[in-house]
Amino acid sequence: MNRFPRLLVSIAALPLLAHAAPPAESTPAGVPPPGAVRVTVETIAVDRRGTWSLGTDLADIFSGSTGVLEKSATLISRGGESGVREMVKMTTHLTPTLDARGGCSLRIETETRGAVAGAPASAKPRRPDQTRATIVLKPEEERLVEAYASAATQGRLALKVRCGATPTASAPLSELDLRFVDFVLSVARAEGDKDPKLMKSNLLRAVMGREASDLFSFNVSLDPDALGSKRYRREKLEITLAPTLMSGERVQIVIGVRGELATVSADAAPITHPIDHEDTVVIATGERRDIDIDVRSSGPEEGWGRVRYRLSFVGTF
Questions:
Q1: Which of 13, 24, 211, 252 is the most buried (most CB within 10 A)?
Q2: Each residue of 280-295: pLDDT tens digit?
Q3: Which one is predicted more confidently, 209 or 195?
Q4: What pLDDT, in 10s, does the model give residues 256-270?
Q5: CA-based end-to-end distance of the chain
Q6: Strands 180-191 and 197-207
């Protein structure tokens, strides 16, 4: 099974994905949930040889975005001894929209160009044949859609399509789904308004649908408190990177940053400042993304005012 060898994904809808609500929140009825749609397409030809398949292609496409599939074939006419041969190239645009019940609406637009073998070079090229259709599919439902009917050979091309939600992260991973994303994760920090300085950099690898994590921990000495007791600031950050969707040459990453800053003294209970940040971004391979985290103390009595973190990562896949 191929995986859309020439899949192009429209980026226009990606900012909507990056600001989609977390999966834990329920989606109102009638509003498509964010994420991807798994589209399966088998291209079928009918000509003198009978009914035969040009292959099955599968891709995960962002809901509301468009994937492009290109197929070529030679159709042979059913009549005559030698048979007229027509070389055709079909470009199919597929735009799925996932519904709240796990089915999808699929807009299909095809453009097919054909050239008959042996036609004079001076012959005027024919206009491309175009079709448009929108179908609504239930989960696991298949539908056959006619895409091209040849006037030269009486041959036909059709698409057998199926679409639905991509497998959940809790589902078992098949060999087909076992794809990796490698990350270089760096943490820089700064006191107050100073420029962040690099503290640590690590290499991580995550499987699609699973998260990779790294823990950063620092202790920073502080001036003694008003009673002369020694104290320090304990900093702890856990960063998770979870690639959840790969489509074309882009991947969607869910980033989690959790931890705390705590002012620790020998004579008083720790004063803690929790960190809980989550974001979703879409990146191309080799693209860098930065996340800024700003933590402030409860007042000058803690011996510090502000700490800033800059988390940077680059993903390759």
A1: 252
A2: 888 888 999 999 999 9
A3: 195
A4: 999 999 999 888 889
A5: 20
A6: antiparallel
